[in-house]
Design brief:
Structural class: alpha+beta
Shape: globular
Order of helices and strands: EEEHHH
Largest sheet: 3 strands, antiparallel
Number of helices: 3
Radius of gyration: 15 Å
Number of strands: 3
Strand content: 5-15%
Distance between the termini: 32 Å
Strand order of the largest sheet: 2-1-3
Helix content: 40-55%
Length: 107
């Protein structure tokens, strides 16, 4: 059964996924099914959760950023968000993400 794809607009910084591009500062446009959106929202929630967990660790100047497990987890989920948006995005969205050079991280 093929699900219908609809156009959605994403702001990674705020974690928002909306159908109306006028209600937020749109970063990316994608075509996705409801199932795709549910998975993307789960990833965005993980980014939010891991960013809250890693925030305190960044205040310790003697710790190398990537040696902190919470930071590695945050980077992993953020990279997965960009991978999903790249896979679902229109041509402009895919080029933009490729120019950010974030897809090779977390491999």
């Amino acid at each position: 059964m093929n699900e219908v794809k609809r156009t959605y607009y994403i702001n990674v910084g705020t974690g928002e996924v909306l159908e109306d591009p006028t209600t937020l500062d749109v970063q990316f446009e994608i075509q996705a099914t409801e199932e795709d959106i549910a998975k993307l929202q789960e990833l965005l929630e993980e980014v939010d959760n891991t960013s809250q967990n890693s925030y305190g660790a960044t205040w310790f100047p003697w710790q190398v950023y990537y040696s902190v497990p919470q930071d590695q987890e945050y980077d992993y989920y953020l990279t997965e968000v960009y991978r999903a948006i790249h896979r679902l995005g229109n041509e402009h969205t895919r080029r933009h993400i490729e120019s950010m050079n974030v897809l090779n991280q977390g491999v």
